[in-house]
Amino acid sequence: MAGGRGRGTATLIAVAVVLGWLVVGAIAGPYAGKLGDVATNDNAAFLPADAEATRAQDLAAGFVARPTTPALVVYARSTGITGADKQRAVADSTRFAQVKGVVGPLPPPIASQDGQALQVVVPIDDAEGEQIGRVVDELRSIAGGDRDGLTVDVAGPAGLLADLIEVFSAIDGPLLLVTLVVVLIILLVVYRSPVLWVFPLLAAGMSYALAAVFVYQLAKHDVIKLNGQAQGILTVLVFGAGTDYALLLIARYREELHRHERPWDAMRAAWRGAAPAIAASGATVIVSLLCLLLSSLNSNRALGPVAAIGIAATLLVMLTFLPALLVLGGRWAFWPRTPGVDRADPQAEHGLWARIARFVARRARVVWLTTAVVLALLTLGLTQLGATTLGQSELFANRTDSVAGQEVIARHYPGGTGSPATIFTRQQTAGQVAQVAQGVPGVAAVRQVTGRDQAGPPAPDAPPLVVDGRVELEATLTDPPDSDAAARTIRNLREAVHRVPDADAVVGGFTAIDVDTSDASTRDRNVIIPVVLVVITVILALLLRALVAPVLLIATVVLSFLATLGLCALVFTYLLDFPGVDASFPLFAFVFLVALGIDYNIFLMSRVREESARRGTRAGVLAGLTVTGGVITSAGIVLAATFSALAVLPLVVLVELGVAVAVGVLLDTIVVRSLLVPALAYDIGPTVWWPSRLSRSARDDTEVAHGG
């Protein structure tokens, strides 16, 4: 009777938990598809307030009735522009001016010196925000496609932004779908059950919906600035990490079903065994991600809490909703491989990993030395990793209209035409600043912005526009505005005009934004990486109640990270033919690889510590490796596969991040966690737990050490 009442109470509790979460899911679900509505993809919006480009942007607002972003419509014919081509460009220009969001009147088409191209500058009101994509689409519709040897492309900052918005619009659809399919396939392979895959996938979906509610509200009320990159990472992170946590809990649950008759009792034991490691793992990732709040870039500061919210939501769901689902599912959820109550040793089910454990025991020192040397050799590839700001033509993994147009502009015009650098200086020093700027290598021309015609060439006698005692100069660069050469010119230009006495010159513009973003990324990398390492070391020390083990784990993860970057540098350069990596890549790769990589060491070493307390350290290492090997490797494959889904977004920076996390996680689970860490811990023995009581255990590991 008492058993029946207990079973009934447990079932009622599980039903109540599941129903409660389903109500939450019904409320939160719609928000998962609305994140794109509150995303911002303008690079300038993420710059620090004290960046020179930000100050220039603030000053620019006073020189125009409405701030604008230019679209550059370029017509090109290799045999020379004809009269009909000119008429077409003029007619298109008239229609462009009538598009909602375009700020007229438009200047006349600008002919190239070689006579093979025409360019129309179309300023688009910044108030359009994300609707700039709609405006650019209308411009492209009006301009039409290539015809009779005349190519037509819409490029410039507005064209680039429109293409980015189109790419990120795929996050709510294709990226989410690909991620779901990848997780589903892996779960089917891992569990070989037509039923069990439903539980982790449903829980991961619930986690994503819950996270989306909080992220949406924070972005809507301007607490954070959400961009497409953070949105994409949130998607793969929640499904990847959520499935990882589910795999670990389900594996422990299956283990306990061999020992307990009732699923409720098995889940209670499994929860007690797995939840601390899962919670510690999640906390490590959350704290690491929140270190991004130390960033000077608003985009990085946004990614930190966005991803941390995703992990927090995932932890909450996986430790409440998933256990309730599994209790209701009972043993039949594992059909056809239903676990029976046979009280078998958990190690008996893991033949492959038992053999790997015995191999580690026989050759521990050789194993960890060999794997450490291999990883060290991979770090040599870092010499091929050139961190830079990717140019517009290098930003996309495919050839977009803005990329094609920028290439045409680069062939027929000074590279900076349509996207000049802007210089703001005091009126009395304007002439001197203009002269100094003109003498900087890489500057093609400098002109003053006039009150009569700010968009086109000024009249010879037009006076400069003066706002609060300042004037604006436009410096056209000889190189494309998104190139490394243009970035060097901006740095030299700033250095030159800053030396003019009492000029208080400020240099901004499209290229300046890229320069300041790159500088801020470098600063963030140098500040945040050491902080993350210290924070994770402290968390590990508290979890493992030791100092030696955390230091060893951190050292192995850092070595794995550097090896991953070295291997990825070779892949990017020689296999994918990418031009380099963005300046933000090393920091993002570090935060995700170290935070997620340490997860697997937490899962392993927390179980090793548990087993060491019963069996002794060396036997505990082998037991921990045996029972966690399969599930952790499966979890690593899931996470690697979900991050690989970022490749569906044709942006080089996201493809690189997805590849790096996938390669790094696989390297960490297969090499570092399966061989290097167990071999190190086995070779060191009880000292690995110093200074805890476990390091002074009287249990003799001599027999185990010799394979006895």
- In percent, how helical is the residue content? 55-70%
- Cα-to-Cα separation, first versus last residue: 48 Å
**Spans of 5+ residues with little confidence (pLDDT < 50)?**
700-708
Oligomer classification? single chain
Q: Work out the strand percent.
A: 5-15%
Q: Tell me the overall shape.
A: elongated
Mean pLDDT: 84
Instruction: Give me the Rg, rounded.
Output: 30 Å
Largest sheet: 5 strands, antiparallel
Give the strand tally. 11
Number of helices: 23
Q: What structural class is derived from the secondary structure elements?
A: alpha+beta
Describe the structure.
The longest helix has 35 residues, at 510-544. Strands 6, 7, 8, 9 and 10 form a five-stranded antiparallel sheet that branches. The protein starts with a helix and ends with a helix. The chain contains 23 helices and eleven strands. Mean pLDDT is 84; it is low at 700-708. A hairpin with a 2-residue loop joins strand 8 and strand 9 (470-477). Helices cover 61% and strands 8% of the residues. It is of the alpha+beta class and 708 residues long.
